[in-house]
Protein backbone atom coordinates (compact mmCIF):
# COMPACT_ATOMS: atom_id res chain seq x y z
CA UNK A 1 0.00 0.00 0.00
CA UNK A 2 1.51 3.39 -0.95
CA UNK A 3 1.40 6.26 1.55
CA UNK A 4 -1.64 8.41 0.95
CA UNK A 5 -1.52 11.71 -0.91
CA UNK A 6 -1.81 15.11 0.76
CA UNK A 7 -5.01 17.14 0.61
CA UNK A 8 -4.35 20.83 0.01
CA UNK A 9 -7.01 23.54 -0.27
CA UNK A 10 -6.61 27.07 -1.65
CA UNK A 11 -9.05 29.56 -0.21
CA UNK A 12 -9.59 33.27 -0.51
CA UNK A 13 -11.84 36.06 -1.67
CA UNK A 14 -12.99 36.33 -5.27
CA UNK A 15 -10.21 37.33 -7.70
CA UNK A 16 -7.39 36.52 -5.29
CA UNK A 17 -5.64 34.50 -8.01
CA UNK A 18 -6.42 31.00 -6.69
CA UNK A 19 -7.26 29.53 -10.06
CA UNK A 20 -4.01 30.69 -11.70
CA UNK A 21 -2.01 29.51 -8.70
CA UNK A 22 -3.71 26.12 -8.64
CA UNK A 23 -2.85 25.49 -12.24
CA UNK A 24 0.81 26.55 -11.71
CA UNK A 25 1.01 24.32 -8.64
CA UNK A 26 -0.37 21.34 -10.49
CA UNK A 27 2.14 21.77 -13.32
CA UNK A 28 5.10 22.20 -11.01
CA UNK A 29 4.20 19.14 -8.92
CA UNK A 30 3.59 16.91 -11.90
CA UNK A 31 6.73 18.02 -13.73
CA UNK A 32 9.07 17.62 -10.75
CA UNK A 33 11.56 14.77 -10.66
CA UNK A 34 10.26 12.28 -9.68
CA UNK A 35 6.78 13.63 -10.56
CA UNK A 36 4.26 13.96 -7.75
CA UNK A 37 0.96 12.32 -8.71
CA UNK A 38 -1.52 15.18 -8.43
CA UNK A 39 -5.18 15.82 -9.14
CA UNK A 40 -6.84 19.24 -9.19
CA UNK A 41 -10.41 19.80 -8.00
CA UNK A 42 -12.56 22.88 -7.65
CA UNK A 43 -15.73 23.77 -5.81
CA UNK A 44 -18.34 24.52 -6.83
CA UNK A 45 -17.99 21.76 -9.43
CA UNK A 46 -20.44 23.21 -11.95
CA UNK A 47 -20.40 20.07 -14.15
CA UNK A 48 -22.77 17.95 -12.04
CA UNK A 49 -26.60 18.37 -11.89
CA UNK A 50 -26.21 20.01 -8.45
CA UNK A 51 -23.42 22.18 -9.86
CA UNK A 52 -25.68 23.30 -12.69
CA UNK A 53 -28.21 24.58 -10.15
CA UNK A 54 -25.44 26.39 -8.27
CA UNK A 55 -24.21 27.95 -11.51
CA UNK A 56 -27.70 29.29 -12.34
CA UNK A 57 -27.87 30.80 -8.87
CA UNK A 58 -24.44 32.45 -9.13
CA UNK A 59 -25.21 33.87 -12.56
CA UNK A 60 -28.48 35.21 -11.05
CA UNK A 61 -30.55 33.19 -13.54
CA UNK A 62 -32.22 31.39 -10.61
CA UNK A 63 -33.12 32.47 -7.09
CA UNK A 64 -33.09 30.36 -3.95
CA UNK A 65 -33.22 30.81 -0.20
CA UNK A 66 -29.86 31.27 1.54
CA UNK A 67 -30.33 27.98 3.39
CA UNK A 68 -31.17 26.01 0.25
CA UNK A 69 -28.19 27.24 -1.78
CA UNK A 70 -25.89 26.61 1.18
CA UNK A 71 -27.01 22.99 1.34
CA UNK A 72 -26.48 22.62 -2.42
CA UNK A 73 -22.90 23.90 -2.15
CA UNK A 74 -22.31 21.37 0.61
CA UNK A 75 -24.00 18.53 -1.34
CA UNK A 76 -21.72 19.36 -4.24
CA UNK A 77 -18.77 18.53 -1.94
CA UNK A 78 -20.42 15.41 -0.53
CA UNK A 79 -21.05 14.03 -4.01
CA UNK A 80 -17.32 14.41 -4.74
CA UNK A 81 -16.13 13.02 -1.39
CA UNK A 82 -15.96 9.25 -2.20
CA UNK A 83 -13.75 9.87 -5.28
CA UNK A 84 -11.65 12.37 -3.33
CA UNK A 85 -10.98 9.81 -0.58
CA UNK A 86 -10.12 7.13 -3.11
CA UNK A 87 -7.69 9.44 -4.92
CA UNK A 88 -5.91 10.30 -1.66
CA UNK A 89 -5.71 6.64 -0.63
CA UNK A 90 -4.19 5.72 -4.00
CA UNK A 91 -1.29 8.05 -3.14
CA UNK A 92 -2.32 11.01 -5.30
CA UNK A 93 -2.06 14.51 -3.88
CA UNK A 94 -5.23 16.57 -4.30
CA UNK A 95 -5.07 20.33 -4.76
CA UNK A 96 -8.44 21.99 -4.49
CA UNK A 97 -9.74 25.45 -5.43
CA UNK A 98 -12.18 26.36 -2.59
CA UNK A 99 -13.80 23.96 -0.11
CA UNK A 100 -16.06 24.04 2.94
CA UNK A 101 -14.42 27.22 4.30
CA UNK A 102 -15.77 29.19 1.33
CA UNK A 103 -19.10 27.53 2.01
CA UNK A 104 -19.26 28.93 5.54
CA UNK A 105 -17.62 32.27 4.74
CA UNK A 106 -19.98 33.26 1.93
CA UNK A 107 -23.27 32.10 3.47
CA UNK A 108 -22.54 33.38 6.98
CA UNK A 109 -21.54 36.75 5.51
CA UNK A 110 -24.81 37.23 3.60
CA UNK A 111 -27.80 39.24 4.70
CA UNK A 112 -26.30 40.22 8.06
CA UNK A 113 -25.67 36.62 8.97
CA UNK A 114 -29.26 35.34 8.78
CA UNK A 115 -27.80 31.84 8.48
CA UNK A 116 -25.71 31.66 11.64
CA UNK A 117 -22.02 30.70 11.60
CA UNK A 118 -22.60 27.42 13.48
CA UNK A 119 -25.54 26.45 11.26
CA UNK A 120 -23.36 27.08 8.21
CA UNK A 121 -20.67 24.69 9.47
CA UNK A 122 -23.10 21.82 10.10
CA UNK A 123 -23.62 20.30 6.63
CA UNK A 124 -19.87 19.89 5.98
CA UNK A 125 -19.11 18.09 9.25
CA UNK A 126 -17.61 14.70 8.38
CA UNK A 127 -16.07 15.68 5.03
CA UNK A 128 -12.34 14.93 4.56
CA UNK A 129 -10.25 17.55 6.34
CA UNK A 130 -7.42 19.14 4.35
CA UNK A 131 -3.81 18.70 5.52
CA UNK A 132 -3.13 22.31 4.56
CA UNK A 133 -5.28 25.36 3.90
CA UNK A 134 -3.52 28.09 1.96
CA UNK A 135 -5.37 31.35 2.43
CA UNK A 136 -4.60 33.90 -0.28
CA UNK A 137 -5.15 37.46 0.91
CA UNK A 138 -5.81 40.24 -1.54
CA UNK A 139 -6.43 43.95 -1.04
CA UNK A 140 -9.67 45.50 -2.27
CA UNK A 141 -7.90 47.63 -4.87
CA UNK A 142 -6.05 44.68 -6.42
CA UNK A 143 -9.17 42.49 -6.27
CA UNK A 144 -11.27 45.03 -8.11
CA UNK A 145 -8.63 45.62 -10.81
CA UNK A 146 -8.55 41.95 -11.80
CA UNK A 147 -10.50 40.82 -14.87
CA UNK A 148 -14.24 40.12 -14.80
CA UNK A 149 -14.72 41.33 -11.24
CA UNK A 150 -18.37 41.97 -10.45
CA UNK A 151 -19.79 39.44 -12.91
CA UNK A 152 -21.31 37.06 -10.37
CA UNK A 153 -23.74 37.32 -7.49
CA UNK A 154 -21.24 37.61 -4.62
CA UNK A 155 -18.82 40.02 -6.26
CA UNK A 156 -19.74 43.22 -4.45
CA UNK A 157 -17.44 45.20 -2.22
CA UNK A 158 -19.76 45.06 0.76
CA UNK A 159 -20.24 41.29 0.70
CA UNK A 160 -16.54 40.62 0.09
CA UNK A 161 -15.76 42.67 3.21
CA UNK A 162 -18.07 40.53 5.33
CA UNK A 163 -16.69 37.34 3.77
CA UNK A 164 -13.18 38.47 4.73
CA UNK A 165 -14.39 38.77 8.34
CA UNK A 166 -15.83 35.25 8.42
CA UNK A 167 -12.66 33.79 6.86
CA UNK A 168 -10.68 35.43 9.69
CA UNK A 169 -12.95 33.77 12.23
CA UNK A 170 -12.64 30.36 10.56
CA UNK A 171 -8.89 30.69 10.52
CA UNK A 172 -8.77 31.59 14.20
CA UNK A 173 -11.06 28.66 15.09
CA UNK A 174 -8.84 26.22 13.18
CA UNK A 175 -5.65 27.45 14.81
CA UNK A 176 -5.41 24.56 17.28
CA UNK A 177 -6.19 21.85 14.72
CA UNK A 178 -3.97 22.66 11.80
CA UNK A 179 -2.93 26.29 11.27
CA UNK A 180 -3.67 27.83 7.90
CA UNK A 181 -0.88 29.35 5.89
CA UNK A 182 -1.62 32.93 4.88
CA UNK A 183 -0.13 33.98 1.53
CA UNK A 184 0.00 37.62 0.45
CA UNK A 185 -1.50 37.44 -3.05
CA UNK A 186 -1.03 41.14 -3.85
CA UNK A 187 2.51 40.23 -4.96
CA UNK A 188 3.60 38.97 -8.39
CA UNK A 189 2.28 35.63 -9.66
CA UNK A 190 5.82 34.17 -9.42
CA UNK A 191 6.38 35.26 -5.81
CA UNK A 192 3.03 33.86 -4.71
CA UNK A 193 3.64 30.61 -6.62
CA UNK A 194 7.02 30.15 -4.93
CA UNK A 195 5.51 30.43 -1.41
CA UNK A 196 2.67 28.09 -2.28
CA UNK A 197 4.96 25.45 -3.77
CA UNK A 198 7.26 25.54 -0.77
CA UNK A 199 4.38 25.06 1.68
CA UNK A 200 2.85 22.25 -0.39
CA UNK A 201 6.13 20.37 -0.78
CA UNK A 202 6.60 20.55 2.99
CA UNK A 203 3.17 19.12 3.77
CA UNK A 204 3.50 16.52 1.00
CA UNK A 205 6.72 15.27 2.52
CA UNK A 206 5.20 15.12 6.00
CA UNK A 207 2.12 13.23 4.84
CA UNK A 208 4.17 10.75 2.79
CA UNK A 209 6.53 10.20 5.74
CA UNK A 210 3.93 9.85 8.48
CA UNK A 211 1.01 8.50 6.39
CA UNK A 212 -1.54 9.85 8.90
CA UNK A 213 -5.20 8.84 8.67
CA UNK A 214 -7.41 11.25 6.74
CA UNK A 215 -9.09 13.43 9.36
CA UNK A 216 -12.64 14.79 9.16
CA UNK A 217 -14.08 18.26 9.43
P1 LIG B 1 -15.62 30.40 -8.00
O1 LIG B 1 -15.56 31.81 -8.54
O2 LIG B 1 -14.39 29.97 -7.30
O3 LIG B 1 -16.11 29.42 -9.05
O4 LIG B 1 -16.76 30.40 -6.86
C1 LIG B 1 -18.03 30.84 -7.15
C2 LIG B 1 -18.63 31.59 -6.01
O5 LIG B 1 -19.28 30.69 -5.12
C3 LIG B 1 -17.69 32.43 -5.18
O6 LIG B 1 -18.26 33.73 -5.06
C4 LIG B 1 -17.68 31.76 -3.84
C5 LIG B 1 -19.01 31.06 -3.78
N1 LIG B 1 -19.06 29.84 -2.95
C6 LIG B 1 -20.04 29.74 -1.96
O7 LIG B 1 -20.80 30.67 -1.74
N2 LIG B 1 -20.13 28.57 -1.27
C7 LIG B 1 -19.30 27.51 -1.49
O8 LIG B 1 -19.42 26.46 -0.82
C8 LIG B 1 -18.29 27.63 -2.53
C9 LIG B 1 -17.38 26.48 -2.80
C10 LIG B 1 -18.22 28.82 -3.22
Automatic annotation (TrEMBL):
The highest taxon in the source lineage is Eukaryota
InterPro entries given for it? P-loop_NTPase, Thymidylate_kin-like_dom, Thymidylate_kin_CS, Thymidylate_kinase
According to the entry, every stretch annotated as the Thymidylate kinase-like domain falls at: 10-196
Q: Which UniProt keywords apply?
A: ATP-binding, Kinase, Nucleotide biosynthesis, Nucleotide-binding, Transferase
* Enzyme superclass (EC): transferase
Chain ranges passing through the membrane: none
Q: What is its EC number?
A: 2.7.4.9
In which pathway is this protein known to take part? Pyrimidine metabolism; dTTP biosynthesis
Coiled-coil annotation reads none
Cite the HAMAP family for this sequence: Thymidylate_kinase
Family per UniProt?
Belongs to the thymidylate kinase family.
The protein depicted here goes by the name: dTMP kinase
Amino acid sequence: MPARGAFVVLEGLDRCGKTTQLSLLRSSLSSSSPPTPVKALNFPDRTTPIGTMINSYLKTAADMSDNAIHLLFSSNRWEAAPALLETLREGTTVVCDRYAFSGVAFTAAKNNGTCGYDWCKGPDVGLPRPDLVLFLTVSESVQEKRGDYGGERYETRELQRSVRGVFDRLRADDEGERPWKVVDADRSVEEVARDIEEAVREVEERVRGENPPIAKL
